[in-house]
Design brief:
3 helices
Length: about 70
């Protein structure tokens, strides 16, 4: 219930901030570039693109929410 949520968070902003921090910890490993130097240039480019797409797919919902809320959060 809403009341039990505010038992753990002071206000909506602290709840949103906590959720975003939790999400960032989950996607943080995807920021690391793990494409090796072995393989052809095409293979390395494909590997990097696939890795970036995984990052954007995992992080985009929170990034969109953050952008939407940016004007109202100090």
């Amino acid at each position: 219930s809403l009341r039990s949520v505010y038992r753990y968070f002071d206000d909506r902003e602290s709840l949103v901030r906590s959720a975003m921090e939790h999400h960032f910890l989950r996607v943080e490993p995807l920021f690391q570039i793990s494409v090796g130097l072995d393989g052809s240039l095409d293979e390395r480019i494909t590997g990097l693109v696939v890795q970036r797409l995984r990052l954007y797919d995992a992080a985009s919902p929170v990034f969109r929410a953050a952008i939407a809320r940016a004007g109202s959060i100090p």
